C-alpha cells in the first residue's frame, strides 16, 4: 500500500506555510525576520521568539526514551490535534468514511463531524473486544481510517493484539491505535510494529502517565510518509515554547513517572477489589488503564451522592454497552479511601 494514494488530493498539492525559522535555520546574532518583539518578554523567562516548528530537541529526547526515530514522530497540541489532522490529511469531506468502535473515546466522532466525514460505528462485542466480521463488512473503498483505542476508554480493557494485527495486515487504509493509557497496561505497545506496517499510527500522550495534561502534548508515531503529511498540514507553531521546555525537563524525571505508574496500577487493583465488595456495585470490569468501569445499582443516585461529598466521577450509564456504569479514575491512596468511604458510609 502506498500511503500517498490515501492522501487527499488538495493536501498532496498543498504548498505549506513557510515560517521565518524554516527559511533561515542557522546561528545569527540579530534576528529581524519574524516580527517578534526584540526587547524580550515581561516575564523572568523570555518567550519573545517563535518556537522550533518541528520541536527537534524535544523529539530527540522523546526518541531516546521511546526508541522511535525523530522522522517517525509527530507532536501535537494534545493527541486530539493529531486525531483532527488525520481527518484533514486523509478524509475527503462528504465522500470518505472512518470506522470507530464504540463505546470508545468521543473525540474520534467529534473530529469526524467537524470535518464532515461519515462515521461508521461497529460496536465492540459484549466482552469489549473487536467484532472482526462486522468490521470487515463495514469497510468499503472509501474507508480511510479505523480508530482502535487500546486500552480502551471507557471500558479499560486492552484490545486483542492479534485482532489489531489482522486489521493492520488486511485493511487498505490507516489504522490509528490510540495508546493514551498504554503505560498502565499489561499489553506491549504497538510502537515496535511501526517498521512492519506503513499504515500504522500509534497515538500516545503526555496527559496521563506523564502527568502533564495541562501542557497539551500528544505524540503520533508512524511511517515517515504519514508523519511528513501531518507536519505539512499542522499549524506552524503548534507546540508552544513553554510546553517544549517543560516537557523536555519532565523527560529527565522518568523515574518519578515510573514510580507513579506502579503506584497507580497497585491502587487500581486494590480499588477494584474493594469496589467489588460493595453492595451497590454489581460488576467491576478488569482494567488495563488508570480508571475503572464499575456497574452500580443506581448510577445517577450514586453519582449525585458522590458530588455532594465533593467527589466527581464520570457517569457513563447512558452509553451503549456501559449501561449502569460509572467510570472512576484511580486517585491517590488517600483519594481512593475517601471514595470508598463515600460509597460505603458503613466503612469504619
Ligand atoms: C483514549 C484517549 N485518547 C486521547 C485522549 C486525549 O489526549 P490528549 O490530552 O493528549 O489530547 C484521551 C483523553 O482522555 C483519551 O482518553
Describe the overall structure:
The protein is α/β, with parallel strands linked by helices and 348 residues long. It folds into two domains: 3-19 and 50-254, Type I PLP-dependent aspartate aminotransferase-like (Major domain) (Aspartate Aminotransferase, domain 2); 255-343, Aspartate Aminotransferase, domain 1, CATH 3.90.1150. The protein is 36% helix and 15% strand. Strands 1-7-6-5-4-2-3 form a seven-stranded mixed β-sheet, sandwiched between helices. It has a four-stranded antiparallel β-sheet with strand order 8-9-11-10, covered by helices on one side. The protein starts with a helix and ends in a 5-residue tail after the last helix. The model has no long low-confidence stretch (mean pLDDT 96). The structure holds pyridoxal-5'-phosphate. Pyridoxal-5'-phosphate is lined by residues 78-80, 105, 149, 153, 178, 180, 205, 207, 213, 218.
